[in-house]
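INFO worker-7 received task bundle
INFO bundle size: 2
INFO processing item 0
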Amino acid sequence: AGADAVSTLRETSVLRGASVTIPCHYEDNYKTNVKFWCSGYYWTSCKPLKRTDSPIRESDKVSISDDPAQGLFTVTMRRLETGDSGWYWCAVEIGDKWTHDDRASLYLKVTEDAGVPYVVNATVTGQIGGEVSVQCRYGHPYRSRQKQRCRSGDWSSCQTAGSPGTAGHGSVLITDHTAEGLFSVTVSGLWPEDQGWYWCDIGDQQLPVYLSVTNGKDE
């Protein structure tokens, strides 16, 4: 497997009591492997919290869902407390003693500080050919920090605020309203391939947001 056989964001912040969904990307040859979510600073001693082959219970604080067609699995953590802050791992079980499980780490910060960056709506929906806007807010310490919009798992896709760009067949307008503490991304001319996970990258924080594209006829 390559160096980025498993990838995810580096750090994200969440307000206490809220939920977060983390996208974990993996290579095509891992489609049928068991995926799991692990807690701890050191990989060698991390504690598995949830596996894709474990039973699903609606009441669980942590849930995991695999989407082999998209080459990713997602982990949702609910009712977060400050004690949940720490290092976590997106991991793929390889299943033999000669090969390490593939994994990628991230830092989750749960805080009561309303100034940390957060995404207004973690899921946004638009119609084919239509327009959709993603809004991420931040406090004063982040005003001068770089803001970017990235396709989740692909740092080379990042576009900075103030630079008009393209998204698939459409266009992207990225604006940073520092006085309001609002970073917004407007995508117009949506196509089905625009659907997927994105990040608001604000300073050292990546805020995951899911863009759903519908055909508009059946919704």
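INFO item 0 finished
INFO processing item 1
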Amino acid sequence: MAIAITKRFTSLRPFRHSILHFSSSPSLSSAQLLQESIKAAIETKSYQQIPELLNASKESHQNPSPFSFLSTFPEKLRTQIIDEILQNFIPLRPRYLPRAAYSSLLSYTLQSPNPLPLALAILQRTLRSGCVPVPQTHLLLSSAWLDRRHQSHPVSEILLEMQSIGYRADCGTCNYLISSLCKVDQSTEAVQVLKGMAGAGCIPDLDSYGYVIGPMCKLRRTPNVVELMKDMVARFGLSPRQEMVVKVLGAIRSRKDMWRGVEMIEFLQSNGVYVGFESYELVVKGCLECGEFVLAGKVTIEMTKRGFIPYIRTRQKVVEGLASAGKWEFAYSVRQRFAELKS
């Protein structure tokens, strides 16, 4: 790698001499001065000076990118140079010092031909340094990803390509990709990334599922949401956070599909997932709204077995609903159960 870079930079030798005269040259703009300074830092392998150059400049986020000169290099060599830059940033402290450099490199790479997998490697180093990519990264990354996917490349294949340049896909990188796709209304593709992560040796976590389930709940795509919930619990042994359970059951309630809601609670409980009061109360209210009074009564009984008692107005509606449906005995037993808990 070092030999290849040295050979390529023989054409840049004049910068060793001219860098001393950049600041006094009236023909160079501040953006050009910055780019020439970065060129010289790369030529001399003084990579750790790059963050200082960018932090001291107001041109780091301007077009053209201060790294645009890298486009004149062969793709393989360009990848090697950027990899060396990333590796030299790792020991810098504080870790966020190269924030502007990461941002410029990522933006430049995502707008270059064949941005993947290099852009994923830059994204990974950005996230691991504790930095947050600029907002427009979501759109650029999604566009780059979809372009590759439209070429019929499987998710796992694209992620595994990171290994060819010395990196491995991880949850942080995949989760950012998933969230980016959801932000540009590509939740269907986000699900494909979620399902393909394991094939690249990256096991999804709660955030992986959360980034997809949230938008799908807003869209009321409850069959897909239920499938994802079952997948995360049964396949990966993950226990969803209570706010996620409430969000899912809320989406089911909005679709008035309360049998599915009851089935979801039963599934979660059978797999050792804690279901809280708010989830039960939500399902009972949904059953009442749909006129499913018997189902509401059954959920209420199950609820009381867990030590929960519905709000007083909900209790009254359950008993009244059962009575109006002619289920007098059941209404009486439910009322008795409430009395026992209150005593």
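INFO item 1 finished
INFO post-check item 1: The radius of gyration is 28 Å.
INFO post-check item 1: Confidence is low (pLDDT under 50) at residues 1-24.
INFO worker-7 idle
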